[in-house]
């Protein structure tokens, strides 16, 4: 059984069919990329799977369990995390505090119980801070631990958002254009980071326009065009698919 199964997934916004009858599956432990022209439905597909949108029709299954329409919080408890195209960073907080926010679902939400166990609460806060610091080292941001987010570069903030998503301890992480707006050096750093995440055992689903990164990292690639599945396969298969070349990659010289 595949880790994630999507079958005949569609969503309509009025008369606009943003995603139409898309079917694919993702095995555990791989890097799976979703590519396509602007407006192809890539982020909408992410939003459907991660609970931001509710599908009009179709099925989404995680480890065989139907998850279509479940909230992002519910999915987080099942090991699903994501980042967004536009940064979702608290700019007036320290970098490490942003990462700690990612662990909020593991915190005790019973405030009275927490108040009665204040020493345990302090100990847990210390443990979460240590975890967050380790994640910042993992993404290469150890020098920014106590830096306010609004004093960090855009490239560092991109990796900070990934660290915050990793703080949720996901099994499946969706990265929406993690290299968008980055310079070549920063793009290489994100490329290496995505590879590290996959090697750590987390299944990665990637939306990205940098084709060099996509081809370097991906075990499988899904191509969308006008909300429909155009092709699916390995990097080599996608690179040589005439329909993909015509719609997206461009003709060979």
Overview of the structural elements:
There is one protein chain. This protein is α/β, with parallel strands linked by helices and 253 residues long. It folds into two domains: 1-79 and 170-253, P-loop containing nucleotide triphosphate hydrolases (Rossmann fold), CATH 3.40.50.300; 88-169, Rossmann fold. It contains ten helices and ten strands. The chain has helices spanning 42-49, 72-77, 95-101, 111-116, 118-138, 154-166, 184-199, 211-217, 235-239, 242-249, and strands at 4-13, 16-26, 31-35, 57-62, 65-66, 80-82, 172-176, 203-207, 220-225, 228-233. The strands form two sheets. Strands 6-7-8-3-9-10 form a six-stranded mixed β-sheet, sandwiched between helices. A four-stranded antiparallel β-sheet has the order 2-1-4-5, with helices on one face. Strand 4 and strand 5 form a beta hairpin. Helix 5 (118-138) packs across helix 6 (154-166). It starts with a strand and ends with a helix. GO terms for molecular function: ATP binding; ATP hydrolysis activity; L-isoleucine transmembrane transporter activity; L-phenylalanine transmembrane transporter activity; L-valine transmembrane transporter activity. InterPro entries: AAA+_ATPase, ABC_AA/LPS_Transport, ABC_transporter-like_ATP-bd, BCA_ABC_TP_C, P-loop_NTPase. Pfam families: ABC_tran (PF00005), BCA_ABC_TP_C (PF12399). Keywords: ATP-binding, Cell membrane, Membrane, Nucleotide-binding, Transport. Residues 4-251 form the ABC transporter domain.
């Amino acid at each position: 059984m595949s880790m994630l199964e999507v079958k005949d997934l569609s969503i309509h916004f009025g008369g606009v069919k943003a995603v139409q009858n898309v079917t694919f599956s993702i095995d555990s432990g791989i890097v799976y990329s979703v590519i396509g022209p602007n407006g192809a439905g890539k982020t909408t597909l992410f939003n459907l799977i991660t609970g931001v949108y509710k599908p009009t029709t179709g099925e989404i299954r995680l480890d065989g369990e139907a998850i279509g329409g479940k909230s992002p919080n519910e999915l987080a408890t099942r090991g699903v995390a994501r980042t967004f195209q536009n940064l979702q960073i608290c700019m007036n907080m320290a970098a490490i505090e942003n990462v700690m926010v990612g662990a909020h679902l593991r915190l005790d939400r019973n405030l009275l119980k927490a108040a009665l166990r204040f020493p345990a609460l302090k100990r847990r806060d210390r443990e979460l801070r240590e975890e967050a610091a380790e994640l910042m080292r993992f993404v290469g941001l150890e020098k920014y631990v106590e830096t306010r987010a609004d004093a960090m570069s855009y490239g560092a903030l991109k990796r900070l958002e990934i660290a915050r998503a990793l703080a949720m301890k996901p099994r499946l992480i969706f990265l929406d254009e993690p290299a968008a707006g980055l310079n070549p050096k920063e793009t290489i750093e994100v490329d290496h980071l995505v590879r590290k995440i996959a090697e750590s055992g987390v299944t990665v689903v990637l939306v990205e326009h940098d084709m060099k990164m996509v081809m370097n990292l991906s075990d499988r690639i899904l191509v969308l065009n006008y909300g429909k599945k155009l092709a699916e396969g390995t990097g080599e298969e996608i690179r040589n698919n005439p329909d993909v070349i015509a719609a997206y990659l461009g003709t060979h010289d």
